[in-house]
Design a protein that fits this description.
alpha+beta; Immunoglobulin-like; Zincin-like; 3 domains; five-stranded mixed sheet; binds zinc ion
């Protein structure tokens, strides 16, 4: 599938009103921006979490599948408004099927607040009735018919074609905030493969040192009071290590889902400089060191993506998401360790857990196919270990320098971030061939003894792991 996972065009008037004077050229009106779209979705907020979605297709269509949230929530939530239009799950895809070719189709859509693995949440609820709409959920891929959809076997990567450019127009009688601009009632976004986050509701734009955005009024006070300074500290660290500052503050939408869930639950999504955070859970009532630590870690992980995105290089597809998720984990782990009394011991503990979890995840297949096996967490756990190996194997032992170098190289050579390009870049940086081969094996081979392969890879990369009699990690020579 030649789908793109990075936005090709942003909002009309990319200006973050609160922190930038940039304005859109007058000629770039909303309608002009939508003109080049192959598929246009007009999403009208009907209130109470209900929307009407009107699709217009440049070419008549008989069958379509969704590029994101492929089968997560639509059956039972989307109702066709035209005779001859159907929505059904076909072999793992929510599919739009039409009795005859059509150039438009309308649906009544109830927001469902699912949190798909490895993808953005289609809708995020705020406690005061506000809602974030993720526009990427409306992206469609044309197919010839039901049989062809079934032949994909539920694997989006098997879809062959050029992904249509999607234009999304969102309308509401309530205020809309899109990319830091508030007080709108209509906004337009164009994307092919990624989409953007649009907030609808009465929430007001607030400004922190490190962000501008919407903070759920029900978010526990201790989180509201601490997270701007937590984020600012993370940004200061990243600026020093990455060697640059972000051009604009993060545009943040922070939703709170209440205390009903046992424990706590967090999901974050980052597109460009926009961040959506969604926290809930009974454990968030009180500030405890464990919960505070986890939230800081969560902010640090998401903030790492903001720095990864700054170069304008598309992040890798799901099968290679260990590249960015692993690096974001490694960066967050290091940032959090710095806040403890004994950073080295903290890292040993964190990476012991990663070794255990990664070993288990590789027991039934390689890292690239982890998503297919429902083991998304492997991209984070194994990915963080690969990030360490990478940093240790390159001359200056810096993951940050490796990343900035890799991105510059990707831009120069017009290459995508994938496993092949990553390993080539390591080679370019002078990493030893046996380290590259060891990482390649974790990513693409079915290993007979994952624990042993992982241990050897850590050793070869120069991380000098030391274990106790029980096989638990007691020391490692951590890179930056
Ligand atoms: Zn992430």
């Amino acid at each position: 599938m030649r789908a793109r996972y990075w936005s090709v065009l942003g909002f009309v008037g990319l200006a973050l009103a609160a922190c930038s004077n940039a304005t859109a050229p007058d000629s770039l009106t909303d309608e002009a921006l939508l003109k080049g779209s192959d598929v246009t979705a007009t999403v009208v907020d009907l209130g109470e979490g209900v929307f009407q979605v009107d699709y217009a297709f440049a070419e008549p269509q008989t069958a379509m599948i969704f590029a994101r949230s492929t089968a997560d929530y639509r059956i039972g939530a989307w109702t066709p408004l035209d005779a001859g239009a159907h929505i059904e799950e076909v072999a793992g895809f929510d599919s739009l099927l039409f009795d005859a070719p059509v150039d438009h189709a309308a649906f009544r859509v109830e927001a469902r607040f699912v949190r798909p693995d490895g993808d953005y949440s289609p809708f995020v609820a705020f406690s005061d009735g506000g809602i974030v709409v993720y526009t990427g959920q409306f992206e469609l891929l044309p197919e010839q018919g039901r049989d062809r959809i079934a032949a994909l076997g539920g694997q989006i990567d098997r879809w062959d074609g050029e992904q249509p450019v999607l234009g999304v127009r969102v309308r509401s009688t309530r205020p809309i905030i899109a990319d830091g601009r508030s007080g709108l009632h209509e906004t337009v976004a164009v994307s092919r493969g990624e989409g953007s986050f649009i907030y609808i509701g009465e929430g007001e734009l607030t400004e922190g040192d490190s962000f501008v955005g919407i903070i759920d009024p029900a978010l526990p006070a201790w989180i509201r009071d601490s997270f701007d300074s937590d984020l600012a500290a993370v940004f200061a660290r990243y600026e020093a290590l990455w060697g640059f500052e972000l051009e604009q503050r993060a545009s943040l939408m922070f939703a709170f889902g209440g205390y009903d869930v046992a424990g706590f639950s967090n999901k974050g999504g980052v597109i460009g400089s926009s961040v959506v955070l969604d926290s809930s859970g009974e454990a968030l009532r009180e500030e405890t060191p464990q919960v505070r630590r986890f939230l800081r870690w969560f902010f640090a992980h998401e903030a790492a993506h903001l720095f990864q995105n700054a170069a304008g290089v598309e992040l890798a597809n799901t099968v290679d998401s260990w590249i960015h998720e692993g690096a974001a984990n490694a960066m967050a782990n290091a940032a959090l360790a710095e806040l403890t009394d004994d950073p080295h011991a903290d890292l040993v503990r964190v990476y012991q857990a990663a070794i255990t979890d990664c070993t288990a995840a590789l027991a039934d297949g390689n890292l690239a196919s982890a998503a297919e096996r429902g083991r998304f967490q492997a991209y984070y756990d194994c990915g963080s270990l690969i990030a360490l190996m990478t940093a240790a194997a390159v001359p200056d032992r810096s993951l940050y320098a490796f990343w900035t170098g890799m991105q510059a190289r990707a831009l120069e050579q017009s290459r995508d971030l994938d496993a092949a390009f990553y390993l080539e870049t390591m080679e370019d940086y002078g990493a030893a061939p046996e380290v590259i081969a060891a990482i390649d094996a974790l990513v693409s081979s079915r290993l007979s003894d994952p624990a042993n392969a992982l241990g050897n890879a850590l050793e070869r990369a120069g991380l000098s792991p030391v274990y106790d009699e029980a096989g638990a990690l007691t020391d490692m020579d951590f890179p930056t």
